[in-house]
Amino acid sequence: MIKDEQIHQHNVFNRRIEVDETIFDQKICCLPECSLVRIFANDVTDTLMAAERIRQLNAELEQRVAARTRELSAANRELEAFSYSVSHDLRAPLRSVDGFSLALRDDYAQHLDEQGWHYIQRIRAGVQRMGQLIDSLLELSRLNFDVLRFRTVDLGEMAAVIISDLHAGEPHRDVNFRVADDLTTEADPRLIRIALQNLLANAWKFTATQPHAEIELSCTRRDAGLVYCIRDNGVGFEMDHSDRLFRPFQRLHGEQEFEGIGVGLATVQRIIHLHRGQIWAEGVEGRGAAFFFTLSPIATDGPDPADEKTGEPS
Amino acid sequence: MKSKCVLLVEDNRDDRELIRLAVKKANLPCKVESVLDGAEITDYLFGTGIYHERDLRMMPDLILLDLHMPKLNGCQVLQVLKRARGTSGLPPVVVLTASDSEQDVTDAYHWGANSYIRKAVDFTQFVESVRQVLLYWLELNVPPPVGQTVTPQLVN
After folding, report:
1. Minimal CA–CA distance to A275: which of A181, A179, A193, A156?
2. CB distance from A92 to chain B under 8 Å?
3. Among A96, A160, A246, B145, which one is least packed by beta carbons within 10 Å?
């Protein structure tokens, strides 16, 4: 038996040979003083085949992931195009119903009794509602076609303009709107305005039964990022239903109670997701709602509005 | 005011009827003739096919053209008209369509449309847009003078 030390002191050669599809790693140790050559042969066929198989599987997996990603984004694009064209094509028959029912109302009024007149009004109301639905769907499907254009936007200023517009529409409402200072961030101004518009209009709508409504836009730092919050003291909602809030055409309140078609929050969620942010809601039935959202990390560049309010060092 | 003639190119029966209704409600003295697709309008304008006996001295004052139609679509019709325009004064063409794709707007103007109007779903708005279009193109706009003896010809 040759000891390890002996081998180290002498010439050692490694080679790999293939004999009848079996692969051997050979260690050839020459010990001239003993006129000896020792050859250690190790059958590595299985090890090599296993390594090759792993390499192949990895490559296959990568290809499959890439292919699935391509398929998924193609399917997404197709779905977006589909929902766009469906909502677009729905307009044509709706135009017929709208036009002919209006012609019936205006030109054949003398032939209609009270009940007939009532039916026409019902048709007209249905048409109006479907028109709104289609417009909202179109708006929702269009959000995907847009490429985000990041600009510096002041969310507080934007929110104040939206609130003053809402107030102009219902000047008798007593609504106290509070907004934190310096809510400057990086976002797509057009899209973020749509999101704020929807959130604030919701807060406005669901505080309608409050004699003294409170709506607040604030910003705090949680974990690594900034969290914006729009809070109101309106009718709120049951937390059990909070997962339904952001799905299109879901409504947690009756149509008689509060108007709306249930697309607003789905739109907001899509906009926030396009900004690589998160959105969630907290509420208590009868005691107000709060909607929290974050924007992408790019949004935390520049002046940090949370620092002043929370007093944390940056 | 002299009664004018509007030629409507529209494959959708409801839309044809709604546009007639809108013209009526717009209360402007004009008559509406309609053809059903892009192939028929070229026959109408150039006196070919089923219109081979039509008096070509009677040209419509305005063409209201739908974009998405079978056979020849609106843009193909515009291309035919653009090629023929050199030989005669063909009427102005207003594209009246439900499409709001930017590509359609670009293509329509590229091929020589004189205006592009979107069909509103709300019929009251629709009547108003038809009224304004007709008022502009039939009454306010002064068309270029046309040689009386020239009749339009298809140019290949």
Report:
1. A193
2. yes
3. B145
